[in-house]
Amino acid sequence: MELYMPVVALGIIATGFAVFSIVMSAVVGPKRYNRAKLDSYECGIEPTPQPVGGGRFPVKYYITAMLFIVFDIEIIFLYPWAVAFDNMAVFGLVEMILFILTVFVAYAYVWRRGGLEWD
Amino acid sequence: MSSAAVLAAEFQAPSFEYSLLSPLLVIFGVAITGVLVEAFAPRGSRYLLQAVLAVLGVVGALVATVIVGLNLVSRGGGTAHGSIAAEGAIAVDGPSIFIWGTVLVLSLVSVLLFAERRLEGGVLSFAGQAAALPGTEAEREASTRGLEHTEVFPLMMFAVGGMMLFPASNDLLTMFVALEVLSLPLYLLCGLARRRRLLSQEAALKYFMLGAFSSGFFIYGIALVYGYAGSMNFAAISAAVSGRAGGEGLLLGGIALLAVGMMFKVGAAPFHAWTPDVYQGAPTAVTAFMAACTKVAAFGALLRLFYVAFGGARWDWTPMVWVIAILTMVVGSVLALSQTDVKRMLAYSSIAHAGFLLTGFVGAQQVADVGIGEITSLQAVLFYLVTYGFTTVAAFAVVTVVRDAGGEATHLSRWSGLGKESPVVAGVFAVLLLGMAGIPLTSGFTGKWAVFTTALAGGAWPLVVTAVLFSVVAAFFYVRVIVLMYFSDPVGEGPTVATPSILTTIVIAVGFAATLALGVVPGPVLDLAAAAGEFIR
What we know:
The complex is a heterodimer of chains A (119) and B (537).
Chain A: H1 5-28, H2 35-38, H3 60-83, H4 85-112
Chain B: H1 3-10, H2 22-40, H3 43-70, E1 82-85, E2 90-93, H4 94-115, H5 137-144, H6 152-168, H7 172-190, H8 197-229, H9 234-242, H10 248-266, H11 274-281, H12 284-309, H13 314-337, H14 342-363, H15 377-401, E3 402-404, E4 407-408, H16 418-421, H17 423-437, H18 443-457, H19 461-487, E5 496-497, H20 502-520, H21 523-532
Antiparallel strand pairs in B: 1-2, 3-4, 3-5
């Protein structure tokens, strides 16, 4: 049980932060309502009425989200590596550099082929 | 002791056998370089760069495979040799090397088919701009500008890498990752046909949905087997299975679910439903690659999983495989009879072949079970995969050259009278079909002989009787196509045979030569399969 105390502590802190942020923004933040704010959130496209046959919708959000996930995964692997860095020595460093390079290859492809251009 | 100290005390720095895994690293390196080429090379030079890079990469990986194969160390005294690499995740042993070699040679042939440009008038047979909706102005513009997706080459290389990792994985998680690495590029490639794009996109979507579904089964099976054995590693699972650790329900459920995932990939009934649609809709070069290489890789993985990890539970899974094998042969052979499209017919034929392969697999004859000079089940299946792979690639390559105004003329009625139009192409296709039917002096006969012998030795004679019976049924529809080509009159304009560039010609020639050579002198390849020995544990 003792081992899990940090996790519990982290959970409490995270919950506290979330509650604090929501309550504070409700209390302190300015309230200016408009139509867009009351609409349901649909990644920037009009939720209704749907175009006939589904229509075409922009996929740029999707690309951005995918890129985010790529970096997200990268971070997930960086954390345990950072923890075990001392033990892994040069091997760990080389492997991690190779890993980050391959992630950047995907990034370079998206960048060069215009995936980062918004319009 | 603080948690950091605990970690430091238990921590063992991992190691990675770069030289043993060099074939894999070369292929993945080429795939990644291909993505960089796509990003930085000017559009005009991409095709040549990508094609040359892919060919060189596969050749390089082949050389590396041969070097690694020659330097395998004996393990455990028996015929098994090789070592477990990457912290127990990958087994580089004789069968792995054999399958790597097979996949790489077949990929080399397929790359040439991918790179064929002459048949479509100077562009690849893949969609110019996959994002353009079929039948729109954007599509026509992409076509007039001569756009091409040269991404197909790196995508194919990623798939090849997955296909090499899949049969060599030595734990369930690595196997799952490899399964995805080989599948995801294939889903994409299936949707990239230049002609009949709706059919192609439909095929890609079907393949993806059903593939994702079967992956779900596979990973659920992994969870159950992990629950039973307490490990993902094949050696540990094997130990738990032999020791009958208790909780048989978990094990049986796990085996069944893993089998669903595997049988989907090899295209065995009743998990075959995707095969005809996908084989028909996908660009024919991709179909050829997929039909040959995926089957080799998936059967390799199937054998390793069931022989190594679940070898101790053989009596539990054999009945299941019996049923699947019989069903697969029946469905493949009987439904092929009613097909009117040559690609669909070849798809059903590949299902039937999966059934014959399963017949060899179910015998489960190991070195200890057979006498000197007799072949084991593993060797028989490996040999059959080689014969099947070459014949299939060549058959689909022939399909790409029989064309009319709308592209490939895949409807069988368009093939009537082909013997008069082009005796050479019809003759080659006839030999390939006879090879698939298993007529003596072709590779199909020696392959079938090998798997049926081991199945008989394993006591699966009812299965062999069924297999022989349905070989005859299958022979009927192969011969029907030959009759159609030679003894029917052309309908209307009749088929035209386009003259392909040297690339497709090489593919057809290699497949044709292998079909005959392996039928007349199967010895060298059988010896190679024998040299591969057993799986290491």
